Amino acid sequence: MNTRLTKTARREQLLEVALRLVRTRGVDGLTLVTLAEAAGVSRPIVYDHFGTRAGLLLALYRDLDERHRLALEDAIRDAPATIDAIASVISASYFACTLDLPEFAPLSAALKGNPELEPTQHELLAAYTTTMAKALTPYSVLPPAALQLRCTALLGAAEALATELTHHRATAAEVTTALTDLIIGQFPTR
Questions:
Q1: In whole angstroms, what is the distance from residue 169 CA to residue 175 CA?
Q2: Where does residue 174 rank: exposed (0-12), middle (13-18), buried (19+ CB within 10 A)?
Q3: pLDDT tens, 25-56?
Q4: Reduced DSSP (H G I as helix, E B as strand, rest coil) percent helix, strand, coil of the chain, to 5
Q5: Torsion over CA of 60, 65, 70 and 73, rounded to 10 degrees?
Q6: Which CATH architecture has domain 1-51?
Q7: Start-end of CATH 1.10.357 domains in the chain
Q8: Which residues make up the CATH 1.10.10.60 domain(s) of the chain?
Q9: For 97-134, what is each residue's pLDDT tens digit?
Q10: Dihedral angle at the C-alpha atoms of 20, 66, 59, 97, nearest 10 degrees?
Q11: CATH T-level topology, domain 62-184
Q12: What is the C-alpha to C-alpha distance for residues 171 and 112, in angstroms, rounded to an integer?
């Protein structure tokens, strides 16, 4: 007996298959057609869910971003309430996701060339930095907007460190320590 999936379940299934395709074929190997074939569904089903290849890439990027942000929120919630602990879990969580979700960086790069998708990437970046800023607020004397901007800068540093990690020019421990130190350095009067 073949059970039909709900629209939400089908979308989740398609995103999981899309992630597998990116892992095996790279971002360039992910199209609506390759996804339909790999998922064993008709092309109209895939087009109905994502519309265009850019829509598919964006949906997968959003899914990975949400996983990344939720992992960070879980780590922060479980951490002791000290700047050292919070800085450490922010750093460790970021690089754990870099290692666990290596598809995130190539997807991000593929989307950066599309000006229509830039507002969405900015929205997702803002959500992530807001999570960071919320966790760091108890240790900061900065106004909220200034703290948010510092978190944006820290996230830029994290991306640069992630490149060092993924190109094997630094270890996970080294980049985690470097980012932790940068975060703690923002709060000299702790």
A1: 10
A2: middle
A3: 999 999 999 999 999 999 999 999 999 998 99
A4: 80, 0, 20
A5: 180
A6: Orthogonal Bundle (1.10)
A7: 62-184
A8: 1-51
A9: 878 877 777 887 787 777 777 788 788 889 989 999 99
A10: -40
A11: Tetracycline Repressor; domain 2 (1.10.357)
A12: 27
Q: Look at the alpha carbons of 31, 33, 39, 44 in this order and tell me if their dihedral is positive or negative.
A: positive
Residue recorded with tokens 């060092």: 164
Quickly list DSSP for 53-118.
Answer: HHHHHHHHHHHHHHHHHHHHHHHHHHS-SSHHHHHHHHHHHHHHHHHH-TTHHHHHHHHHT-TTTH
Distance of CA 90 to the CA centre of its chain: 13
